[in-house]
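Long-time lurker, finally posting.

We've been working with Palmitoyltransferase (Picathartes gymnocephalus) and I want a structural starting point before designing mutants. I don't trust myself to interpret raw outputs, so I'm hoping someone here can both generate the structure tokens and explain anything notable. Sequence follows.
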Amino acid sequence: MRQRIHFVVDPQGWCCMGLIILVWLYNTIFIPKVILFPHYEEGNISVVAVLCYYFCSLFCIASLFRASVADPGKLPENPKIPITEREHWELCNKCNMMRPKRSHHCSRCGHCVRRMDHHCPWINNCVGEDNHWLFLQLCFYTQILSSYTLILDFCHYYYFLPLKKENW
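Top reply, 14 upvotes:
Generated this for you. Predicted structure of Palmitoyltransferase:
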């Protein structure tokens, strides 16, 4: 099933996404310039470590964009309810639409979402039935990138030999 693109107009969410992108850009430029490239030039690490860092960084930002623009499971305006399923649907008291049970109305987005988990300001989107897996991918890749950066920082200060040339 092809994912529909979904945008939420929320200033707080756009600020959070902007902050994440700025931190990502800082780490993508700063960490390699201070830790990876100088140690690569002196032979302390291999090109594989540099490529792994950039791949983790790329996967992290790609999963952020995928989770932020994917439709979380927004209910259509006039859903077609099968006769056998009518007892499993209820009326939303905020938007006056029929929705399946376990659906919730997001006050930030202004619509009902199937199996809504929460509205995440960091992706500026609800986490629901259709984008839950993408949100978990984002959490996984963010954890991998953060752990890899922490390991590189630890190695830079305690394991690698001191750099021979001056590094700003």
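Before you design anything, note these points.
Strands lie at 89-91, 98-100, 104-106, 111-113, 118-120, 125-127.
The first helix runs from residue 11 to 41.
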